[in-house]
Predict the 3D structure of the following.
Amino acid sequence: MTDDAGVAFPTLSEIVGDTPVVRLQRLAPEGTTVLAKLEGNNPAGSVKDRPAFSMIAAAERDGRIVPGDLIVEATSGNTGIALAAAAAVLGYRFVLVIPEGSSRERLDTMRAYGAEVVETPREQGMEHARDVAEQIERERGAVRLDQFSNPANPASHVDATAREIWEQTHGRVTHVVCTMGTTGTVTGVSRGMAALAPHVKVYGVQPAPGASIPGIRAWPQEYLPAIFDDTYLAGVREVSGERAIETARELARQEGLLLGLSAGGAAAVALELASENPGSVVLFVAPDRGDRYLSTGVFG
């Protein structure tokens, strides 16, 4: 976009994506290459910047929303932050429904962007938060973008994230690891990689039974996101909460990468795949930064 003097400066939405890829120097097994794609470098700090702007743009094209309207969304955190930022710059009011227990940094960030935050009982999980968002949609005339069924969510990764991964690895990537929350990233990246390089194996990551890892979910069948498509997945692997935290700490202390706990889970699986496949080039998508979790004490 150009200003009054005809000088081109990017807008916020135009700097989403093209996040850097870096190589692990100390944790990768010998004879392998393990790469981290740093989605925390997006302007609102996570991979969710991509679908946030994509979903709002799609709703505008479809005539569902115009600036000034009220948007509501249920999220565990990063989508809420990204949508709050997008709503602020695009002129929308935003209500976020989130289960109790999110880090203080996340809640404060959402409110800093001007979002109204509605917390729901932690023990009822994201499923109940989604139900509350539907209630607000009915009672307050809000528009629910519904990241769990919105095709613009995975679409934001098909042409952008997958292409970036292929180009930034110079066509050498052999495995890609994505954590599964809304499942938009893993669905879109696997679909995009299937078109670009069908030999590349894309894996999803879920928490092990009983584990709780911010940003990663194993959904009950009745709440499985409608956007989820495992057609192009090589498989889904599980990671324990302890392993995700341990790996996040190792990334910070040995690689200088302060990443979130879901990134710790993705990195743990990426390192496993590298060990199992000598000579491989394994990339994991790091959804956000670790500074959003400092108040939880997980980094000691």
Q: What stands out?
A: The first helix runs from residue 49 to 61. Strands lie at 21-23, 33-38, 70-74, 93-99, 116-120, 143-144, 175-179, 201-207, 235-239, 281-286. The CA atoms of residues 17 and 160 lie 7 Å apart.
